């Protein structure tokens, strides 16, 4: 979740390893280096819309006895909203509650949930979530045994109160001390974090709908009380995050060489200035994704935010994804503008809610905005994807090519929300295109013939409310 870091500060390895523990899947998602977009095993572009599912307290997973759970009923509702990915909290404190001891019961529960998502056609992004380092400070993520206080004064110093806005406690000595000792690998702290990720990759390598592993949520730069300059994004990334990410990605790919690694910069690093190479270096660019968040502040305009992230991803030929933004302000123009802007950039996104089940209690207007039509699978390179909520007209244009070995495109449409009186579909060209409605009532399937693929033709699909003058 978002921290107003900028505001707070104003207030005060190489090569790809070929290993024996390879994934058994062949349909994993990867990055196309020439476009930096997600593609599947057929070369088709993939777009993801999703929601975060991070349970920050015991049992550290949205399963019983948690006060909200992800089950079959919930996933069915998620699919009706066009959700095809969950950013699922994989909590370090749950996985290794005691030093060096991997909790197999916790991993079993995570695996059960990942499989349930896969059975429902929903991808999972496993997120090592943290806020404020530890539950001791009202945060989450790292187990208590991994906190080294050193000479830092006890919480909440330099504050006198414990009921302030929680993000302010990032400027306490002990929280900074925890991060500082972790980045310095004091008492082999990074060794245990690497063990946690190695076991995770070993467990989940076999799942085709495992999208990837996010190494750390919203990393803090280090101990700013010991070195105030570590707050500079360039220095923090180069000194602390880059070597950590290289180590973690190497160990992950030993166990699972096929799935993606997601990585974040410091949250106020608007231009990602510290990145000199992607985790695992350029040879692994097609398996790395720059994960970023959008909150106001420290960001102010999503268009500028995406521009800078895309400049970085294109430079390194890696992928990108907007993995957090306010999904609880659905009635505001800002929320609508975020989704529209992401579509204009053909960017995948995952919204943030502390409890994702709150989606279902929102207004019809919110749900209509959240669950707007979009292409989930495209047998070509997307040039236009646009939904106009005023007219309920959806447009998709894509350019075919012979490198893509499947001619099937899949478009999500919630007919009840956007086309209660049915809809019509028009295509250009009109010859060589076959369109059908999927039996689940939420997807349109578009096929183009090989002649269209061989000639690199632009295909345009338009979905509009049905009138007496148009028919499917």
UniProtKB/TrEMBL annotation:
Instruction: Show where the Glycoside hydrolase family domain sits.
Output: 70-327
GO terms (BP aspect): carbohydrate derivative catabolic process; lipid catabolic process; polysaccharide catabolic process
The organism's taxonomic lineage, starting at the top: Eukaryota, Metazoa, Porifera, Hexactinellida, Hexasterophora
Q: InterPro entries this protein is in?
A: GH, GH5_C, Glyco_hydro_5, Glyco_hydro_b, Glycosphingolipid_Hydrolases
Alphabetic keyword roster: Glycosidase, Hydrolase, Signal
Gene3D superfamilies tied to this protein: Glycosidases (3.20.20.80), Golgi alpha-mannosidase II (2.60.40.1180)
Q: What protein name applies here?
A: Endoglycoceramidase-like
Q: Which residues belong to the signal peptide in this entry?
A: 1-22
GO MF terms here are:
hydrolase activity, hydrolyzing O-glycosyl compounds
Does the record's keyword annotation contain Hydrolase?
Answer: yes
Q: Which family does it belong to?
A: Belongs to the glycosyl hydrolase 5 (cellulase A) family.
Describe the location of the Glycoside hydrolase family 5 C-terminal domain by residue ranges.
Answer: 373-461
Annotated organism of origin: Oopsacas minuta
């Amino acid at each position: 979740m978002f921290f107003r870091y900028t505001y707070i500060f104003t207030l005060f390895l190489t090569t790809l390893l070929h290993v024996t523990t390879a994934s058994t899947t062949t349909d994993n998602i990867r990055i196309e280096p020439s476009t930096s977009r997600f593609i599947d095993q057929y070369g088709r572009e993939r777009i993801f819309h999703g929601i975060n599912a991070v349970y920050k307290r015991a049992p550290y997973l949205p399963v019983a006895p948690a006060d909200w759970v992800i089950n079959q009923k919930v996933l069915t509702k998620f699919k009706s909203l066009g959700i095809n990915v969950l950013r699922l909290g994989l909590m370090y404190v749950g996985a290794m509650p005691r030093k060096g001891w991997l909790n197999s019961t916790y991993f079993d529960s995570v695996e059960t949930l990942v499989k349930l998502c896969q059975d429902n056609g929903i991808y999972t992004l496993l997120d090592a979530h943290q806020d404020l380092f530890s539950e001791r400070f009202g945060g989450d993520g790292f187990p208590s045994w991994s906190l080294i206080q050193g000479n830092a004064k006890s919480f909440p110093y330099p504050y006198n109160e414990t009921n302030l806005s929680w993000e302010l406690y990032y400027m306490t000595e002990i929280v900074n001390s925890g991060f500082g000792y972790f980045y310095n690998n004091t008492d082999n702290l990074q060794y245990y974090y690497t063990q946690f990720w190695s076991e995770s990759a070993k467990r989940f390598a076999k799942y085709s709908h495992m999208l990837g592993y996010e190494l750390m949520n919203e990393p803090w730069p280090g101990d700013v009380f010991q070195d105030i300059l570590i707050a500079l994004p360039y220095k923090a990334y180069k000194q602390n995050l880059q070597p950590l990410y290289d180590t973690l990605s190497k160990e992950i790919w030993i166990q699972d060489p096929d799935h993606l690694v997601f990585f974040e910069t410091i949250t106020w690093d608007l231009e990602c200035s510290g990145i000199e190479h992607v985790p695992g270096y350029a040879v692994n660019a097609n398996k790395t994704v720059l994960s970023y968040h959008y909150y106001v502040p420290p960001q102010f305009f999503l268009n500028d935010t995406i521009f800078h992230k895309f400049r970085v991803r294109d430079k390194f030929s890696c992928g990108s994804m907007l993995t957090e933004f306010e999904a609880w302000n659905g009635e505001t123009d800002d929320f609508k503008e975020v989704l529209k802007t992401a579509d204009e950039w053909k960017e995948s996104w995952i919204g943030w809610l502390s409890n994702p089940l709150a989606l279902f209690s929102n207004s019809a207007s919110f749900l209509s905005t959240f669950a707007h039509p979009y292409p989930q699978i495209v047998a070509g390179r997307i040039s236009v994807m646009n939904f106009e909520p005023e007219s309920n007209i959806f447009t998709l244009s894509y350019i075919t090519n012979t490198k893509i070995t499947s001619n099937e495109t899949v478009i999500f449409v919630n007919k009840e929300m956007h086309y209660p009186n049915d809809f019509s579909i028009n295509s250009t060209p009109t010859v060589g295109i076959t369109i059908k409605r999927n039996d689940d009532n939420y997807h349109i399937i578009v096929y183009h013939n090989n002649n269209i693929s061989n000639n690199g033709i632009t295909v345009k699909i338009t979905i509009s409310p049905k009138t007496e003058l148009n028919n499917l």
